[in-house]
Amino acid sequence: MFPKQVQTEHLKIKVIGEVDTNQNDAWKNLADVTFYIYAPNADQPMLFKDGHFTTDPSGKAELTSDSLGEIYLSSLPEGEYFLVELKTVDGYQLSRKISFTIKAGELTEVLVKNYLIDNDKDPGSTTEPSKETTHEEELKRGGQHFRKVNDKKPAQGLAGARFEVVTWNAKRRVFEPIYLKDKSIYILESDSRGYFEVNHMPLGKYYLIEIKAPVSQGLKYQPLEQAIPFEITRQSYSNYTVMEIVNHPVEASKQDKEVIINKPSKPSDIGYLSSTGEGRSLYKYYAYLLVSISLLIVFRHLQLLKRRIRNLHG
C-alpha cells in the first residue's frame, strides 16, 4: 500500500489564512486546521506517532496545525502523497486536495492557503454553487473524489475527461445543471492521473454526465452513455473514498472516426424511480389501470347477466 521505506528528512506543512479579500498579500497563520495524509490508492489515511510515520495501529491519522500554523513530520517513506484538509477555522473554505512528493534526504514543504468564504477571486479553492451560505449551512455540505481510469488491471488514470454536474428533476423528467457563482455550468475535468472532485456542495444526490471522452497515448476512449449517480454526505469527502469511472477504448476499426457523444436523457441507476418520486407516479398509473380493467370485467358480467334474464323471460 505504501511506497518503499526510505529514511527521509522532515515534512513541513504550513497553513495560512487570507486576512482581507481585497488584499491579496495579507495572510495570517492558522492554528487547529486538521488534515489526513494518504498514499496513492490507499483507502485509509497514514498513521503518525509523535510526529513520525508509523504502521502501529495505535498511531493517529489526524494531523493538526500548531499556533504557528505548522505541522512537522518525519520518517515518511519516499514517494507521492495526498494532503486532504478535514476541518479549518470558522469563516474559511477548505483547501483543495494537495499532492506532494517525498524525496530521500530532502526537506519537503507544503504550503496550504485557506481563503475566506465568499471570496470569488480564489483561483485555488474548489468552486462552489451560486447560493451564498452561512456557517451553519456550510456544515450541511460535502464533496466526493473521483478518478477516471481505463479497463486495464491495474487501472491507469485517464486525463482530459470532462463531466457536467447535474441533478434529476423528477417532476419535469429532465436533468438540470448546477450553476457556479459566475453563473457558468459546473464542469469538471480529470487531471494528469485521472483525479477530479467536487466540494462545498449541498448534501444530496447528483449525477455526472460525460461531455468529453479522454484520449490517452493516441488511443480514443468511448464516452459513457449513462449518467453516473453519486451521493454527497458529510463524510463522503473527508473519508477520501474515490469513485472510479471506467472507460473502454473505441474499437480499433473506429479509432480514426469522430467520437459521438450520446448524452443520457434520464437516470439509469437501479431504484431511482422510487427515490425521486417518479416511481410513485408509476405505481398510481398501474393502480388506475388495474381498477379500470376490474370495472370493465364487472361491466361485461352485468351485460351477460342482463342477456340471460331477457332470454329467460322471452
| CATH A-level architecture of the largest domain | Sandwich
Distance between the termini: 93 Å
- Class by helix and strand content? alpha+beta
Give the helix tally. 3
InterPro entries: Ig-like_fold, SpaA_PFL_dom_1
Region (Disordered): 121-147
Biased composition (Basic and acidic residues): 121-141
Protein name: Cna protein B-type domain-containing protein
Structure characterization notes:
It is a single chain. The protein is α+β, with helices and mostly antiparallel strands. Helices cover 14% and strands 35% of the residues. It has 3 helices and 20 strands. The strands form 6 sheets. Strands 12, 13, 14, 16 and 19 form a 5-stranded antiparallel β-sheet that branches. Strands 1, 2, 7 and 10 form a 4-stranded mixed β-sheet that branches. The longest helix is centred in the last third of the chain and has 36 residues, at 278-313. The chain is elongated. The chain starts with 10 loop residues before the first strand and ends with a helix.
